[in-house]
Amino acid sequence: MEIGIVGLPNVGKSTLFNALTKTQNAESANYPFCTIEPNKAVVPVPDARVDKLAEIVQPKRVLYSTVDFVDIAGLVKGASKGEGLGNQFLENIRQTEAILHVVRCFDNSDIVHVDGAIDPIRDIETIETELILADLQMLERKMERLKKQAKGDKTLLPVIAEGEKLLAHLEQGKLALTYAFTNPELAETLLKNPGIITAKKVIYCANVDEDGLAEENAYVKAVRDYAARHNSATVMVSAQVEQELAALEPEEQAEFLESYGINESGIEKVIRTGFDLLGLQSYFTQGKQEVRAWTIHKGWKAPKAASVIHNDFEKGFIRAEVIAYEDFITHGSEAKCREAGVLRSEGKEYEVRDGDIIHFLFNV
Q1: Residue 212 and residue 262: Cα distance in Å, rounded?
Q2: Residue 121 near residue 228 (C-beta atoms within 8 A)
Q3: Which of 89, 154, 265, 277 has fewest C-beta within 10 Å?
């Protein structure tokens, strides 16, 4: 999963990025455009189930599922026309699976706002207008190519008709995410290669100060209402608190969070929300060499799930030996699960469940 972090300058994007990645490689400063290149980092997904499996199995190494976060430089009004740092950063967003839209939801006269005052809905609409304008340019070019191709291929006419409706939707200032396709089978053709940015799932990240963690302020409530109307998700995070948290040792973090009356870090909120939004889940492999979590989409069958380990696993799939996570914890080993009869042999039609512990048998 790759998530692009967007937002106006000085809303806390780079501070949050530093906290999420536990690094300081995204420069943050009190002026616009301090991030001049998209920063990328691979972040392990916190999962207590992996920790518990490792405690039992005692492997040589432990590998978690990961999320790639891309910190994209602050966009401003006119970005779709090259203002600020221009279109190069819009292209970075096209490569991601979801968008984390950081919105400033706190007052602080010491931190300048690019528009001079705090108004989270205006800020959201500024960014989304630029993304819609960029999508319009992209889709118009795609439609021109399709119309030329349609002169020799009449099967493209339904695609063009649907594309015209999507263009009209965008021209009304609406996100592609809210467009209802007349023919859903054409969605991938129109939304992929190159990707339509506003078709991506969005998590609105309401960034508050330390005092704002105790109770949602009016800014956060406005963002949550906006997200609900646009079929999107919201998380409330204090980027500054998260950065302080990231500097602590693991055993100190729980106490630190408790002092703010919360029991879940920002990274956990964002990742959990991202998994839910994109319909993702994890399965596990275990052995003395390693315990590892693998990310797949809900609904994937065993051969497809095996492909994330290696394509050969899918091509030569024979069967999957599956143990439910709870059964493994109860019995304490694969051998004991086999003895107890809770290790199952599943075929190509098996739909992998969240938390399954799987050993794939294949032949190529």
Answers
A1: 12
A2: no
A3: 154
The 10s digit of each residue's pLDDT in 144-188 is 999 999 998 899 999 999 999 999 999 999 999 999 999 889 998
Q: Using the predicted structure, report yes or no on whether residue 26 has a pLDDT greater than 50.
A: no
CA atoms within 13 A on the CB side of 298: 8
This prediction's pTM: 0.84
Give bridge partners of residue 206 from the DSSP assignment: 103, 236
**Per-residue pLDDT reduced to its tens digit, 235-272:** 999 998 988 888 888 788 889 988 888 888 888 889 89
Please, are residues 277 and 98 in contact by the beta-carbon 8 Å criterion?
yes
pLDDT in tens, 291-340: 999 999 999 999 999 999 999 999 999 999 999 999 999 999 999 999 99
Query: Taking the CA atoms of the chain, what radius of gyration do you get in angstroms?
Result: 23
CB 199 within 8 A of CB 186: no
pLDDT-derived band at 33 (thresholds 50, 70, 90) equals: very low
3-state SS of the chain?
Answer: CEEEEECCCCCCHHHHHHHHHCCCCCCCCCCCCCCCCCEEEEEECCCHHHHHHHHHHCCCEEECCEEEEEECCCCCCCHHHCCCCCHHHHHHHHCCCEEEEEEECCCCCCCCCCCCCCCHHHHHHHHHHHHHHHHHHHHHHHHHHHHHHHCCCHHHHHHHHHHHHHHHHHHCCCCHHHCCCCCHHHHHHHHCCCCCHHHCEEEEEEECCHHHHCCCCHHHHHHHHHHHHCCCEEEEECHHHHHHHHCCCHHHHHHHHHHCCCCCCHHHHHHHHHHHHHCEEEEEEECCCEEEEEEEECCCEHHHHHCCCCHHHHHCEEEEEEECHHHHHHHCCHHHHHHHCCCEEECCCCECCCCCEEEEEECC
